[in-house]
Amino acid sequence: MNKTLFMFASSIAVTIAASLLAPNVLQADQSDGRLDFYFIDVEGGASTLIVTPEGESLLIDSGYPDNNGRDRDRILKTVREIAGLDHIDHTAVTHWHRDHYGNHAALTALIDIGTFWDNGIPDALQEDNQFETKIAEYRAATQNASKTLRPGDTLPLKSGKTPLSITIVTSDREVIPNTGEPNPFADRHEARPEDPTDNAASLSFWLKFGDFRYLCCGDLTWNIEAKLMTPNNPIGKVDLFMVTHHGLPTSNNPVLVHAIDPIVAVMCNGPKKGGHENSIKTLQTVESLKALYQLHHNVALDPSQQTPAEFIANQEATADCQGVLVKASVAPDGESYTVQIGADGQPTTYQTR
């Protein structure tokens, strides 16, 4: 860890220890005008619930199926008990791997869901010879009415006093036009062999709320990250970044990570999946990074090779894991945001750019 990030992490630890008695509220309350993100622990899959100031909800990805309903139940607990919702307005699938769409069908049997969004359903996946059978459940759940998102599309969300929008910047290996300022990190791209998997076709979500910026790229891989970000940077810098592809090194190309220059990053890894040393090193050299949160301690890495323990939501192996989430909450004017670990965690405040 670089010296600056280490010193910042240490100071935050002191702040947390000194303020344990301060009140904190995790329950969503749309009357407060905040924009909330819940990064749900699905053991190395992905599932993020976004709740807008207008009370609309968007669930991006839904973790693994099976495991006695573990991920499904963690999602439902977050939606109902933590966010205080009785339905989900929108769900999205970034791409067609089971750790991302595994519970969409199961959720529809237990909670009302409005609109389904995805990157377009392919006829087959070369990496999954059972895809035709698996996707039938999703088709049935959506009644074959899911909507395909393309680069440049925006989700139809209500926008209040502080403007809110979510724009799709990648889909099905295509990207938004490469406009904007020249990317000073463009020359860091070293092309890799083409990725034929559906990871490269991932949807990427670019959220704007006032001056606040957030980016989630699903499992987007190396060359498409570069396609989006070279020679120009059409996104600019962001405040909050969901680390791509669980922190695997087939993604998180420095040409993207350094260009967006996040202040806070959240890595949705598992104890044995993602959280790779190379990706962590890339993040730790980001100029503006103040904190990296991990959903899990990576059991394969020494503690010195990952973020400090106070920024890791789950330290246990899968068998004993409590599924603690990470929450981010943006102020009504979009000028600041907090990040905390779990329902009882102490929020740390960060200023929007």
Task: Report on the architecture of this protein.
With 353 residues, this protein is α/β, with parallel strands linked by helices. The protein has eight helices and 19 strands. The strands form three sheets. Strands 6-5-4-3-2-1-17-18-19 form a nine-stranded mixed beta sheet. Strand 7 and strand 8 (174-175) form a beta hairpin. The longest helix is centred in the first third of the chain and has 16 residues, at 3-18. It is globular and about 45 Å long.
Defining key terms:
8 helices; Metallo-beta-lactamase, Chain A; 8-stranded mixed sheet; alpha/beta; 353 residues; globular; 9-stranded mixed sheet
Mean pLDDT: 92
Main sheet summary:
9 strands, mixed
CATH class (first level) name:
Alpha Beta
Q: By CATH's scheme, which homologous superfamily applies?
A: Ribonuclease Z/Hydroxyacylglutathione hydrolase-like
Topology:
Layout: H1 3-18, E1 35-39, E2 48-51, E3 57-60, H2 70-82, E4 87-92, H3 98-101, H4 104-108, E5 112-118, H5 131-142, E6 147-148, E7 164-171, E8 174-175, E9 181-182, E10 204-209, E11 212-216, H6 222-229, E12 232-233, E13 240-242, H7 254-260, E14 264-267, H8 277-284, E15 291-296, E16 312-314, E17 326-330, E18 336-341, E19 348-351
Parallel strand pairs: 3-4, 4-5, 5-6, 11-13, 13-14, 14-15, 15-16
Antiparallel strand pairs: 1-2, 1-17, 2-3, 7-8, 7-10, 9-12, 10-11, 17-18, 18-19
